[in-house]
């Protein structure tokens, strides 16, 4: 009896809720309507995006969702920065001990520099690279675990070019410098 009541209530809710017949513009502008979705659903769903997508300078790939979030976040931060609110700057600067950082100079990095300079063989260089990676510095390649494109039930390791220490925007956007 309980199963019947639950099933009927779910059926009634579904019937009154109707169905979604329109997609948001952010989705429809990515669809290639010239493709039959039964023939090639991926091309149908992403075809227009593929035709119009541009990988930004300094990037090796683009993830639309995170890229959009990053753009919006930077716009918000740029506005906050351009408002030049003294309290915000004071709060941020209170966490920076620039005097100590300036007095230390490159001293904290000396061991890494010495190890790099003393690497005389390929094996030595790989060992040094491994130590740098342990400290969060991708050297030759940035290894990421992502869903396998051929079998989404599994993860695969992908190697991307190691990022530069500073993004190119560091040199072009005043608020980042």
From TrEMBL:
<feature type="signal peptide">
    <location>
        <begin position="1"/>
        <end position="17"/>
    </location>
</feature>
<protein>
    <recommendedName>
        <fullName>Peptidase M13 N-terminal domain-containing protein</fullName>
    </recommendedName>
</protein>
<dbReference type="InterPro" id="IPR008753">
    <property type="entry name" value="Peptidase_M13_N"/>
</dbReference>
<dbReference type="Pfam" id="PF05649">
    <property type="entry name" value="Peptidase_M13_N"/>
</dbReference>
<dbReference type="InterPro" id="IPR042089">
    <property type="entry name" value="Peptidase_M13_dom_2"/>
</dbReference>
<feature type="domain" description="Peptidase M13 N-terminal">
    <location>
        <begin position="37"/>
        <end position="173"/>
    </location>
</feature>
<dbReference type="GO" id="GO:0016485">
    <property type="term" value="P:protein processing"/>
</dbReference>
<keyword id="KW-0732">Signal</keyword>
<dbReference type="GO" id="GO:0004222">
    <property type="term" value="F:metalloendopeptidase activity"/>
</dbReference>
<dbReference type="InterPro" id="IPR024079">
    <property type="entry name" value="MetalloPept_cat_dom_sf"/>
</dbReference>
<dbReference type="InterPro" id="IPR000718">
    <property type="entry name" value="Peptidase_M13"/>
</dbReference>
<dbReference type="GO" id="GO:0005886">
    <property type="term" value="C:plasma membrane"/>
</dbReference>
